[in-house]
Amino acid sequence: MALDEALLDWHSEGSIPPVIRFYEWNPATLSIGYFQQAERDIDLEAVKRQNLGFVRRPTGGRAVLHDQELTYSIIVSEEYPDMPKTVTEAYRVLSEGILLGFQNLGLDAYFSVPDTEEKQADLKKPRSAVCFDAPSWYELVVEGKKVAGSAQTRQKGVILQHGAILLELDEEKLLSVFKFSSERIKQKMREKLPEKAVAMNRFVDTPFTIPQCVEAFKTGFEKSLHIELVPYTLTEEQLAYVKELEARKYANDEWNFRK
């Protein structure tokens, strides 16, 4: 999370070009949205008991358990050519590469568009703290089930969008880190989740690998945004800045438990 914020800062200053980054999490980590209330929504004892990481994202949205997944982030100026001004339409443009990436892997993915007033109302006032409870505007679904969740923030004239692309999904592990008002509500979520979210490997006999996915989504972004991606390596000074930001913010309880 510190690196995503640092990349946003550097891009806002004009010292680096737009960036698309792919990464994984070690250990598996629960990230909560910028506006979420940690004590209210999260079973912090369960997080600690399972040796999971815990961090508050700089972006909004609901909690995500980053486990067996590929995570991506995009850092790009709001003034980038043909970039829509609205958050929803920018999601569509930036997520097109994810859509093509899934298709490159042979999955019949498409954008979700909430088609009823009830579903649209759910986006404004979610019924649960779980990100993969339901797809929102222009998130990616296969066979009607969410396979990727994204979140976005805009700061200093720069868009940061990042998201989780599920290779595997452990429903019990996911549910274990949330608070529910009753066992009945938790059971209802347990029954509903497999109908709402699915991991990529459920659709294939041979599991996808991370390098295979990186290549597929890299190619997807290049085609959708009409760009060529070239490798970028951080300098020692940049790495030191990221470590300092991590210690000051994302590894700090004052930030993570501020709500």
Automatic annotation (TrEMBL):
GO biological process terms held by the UniProt record: protein lipoylation
UniProt keyword list: Ligase
Mitochondrion in keyword set: no
Protein species of origin: Metasolibacillus meyeri
Protein name: Biotin/lipoate A/B protein ligase family protein
Gene3D superfamilies in UniProt: Bira Bifunctional Protein, Domain 2
Record-level Gene Ontology MF annotations: catalytic activity, acting on a protein; ligase activity; transferase activity
UniProt cross-references to PROSITE patterns, sorted A to Z: BPL_LPL_CATALYTIC
Domain BPL/LPL catalytic: 14-229
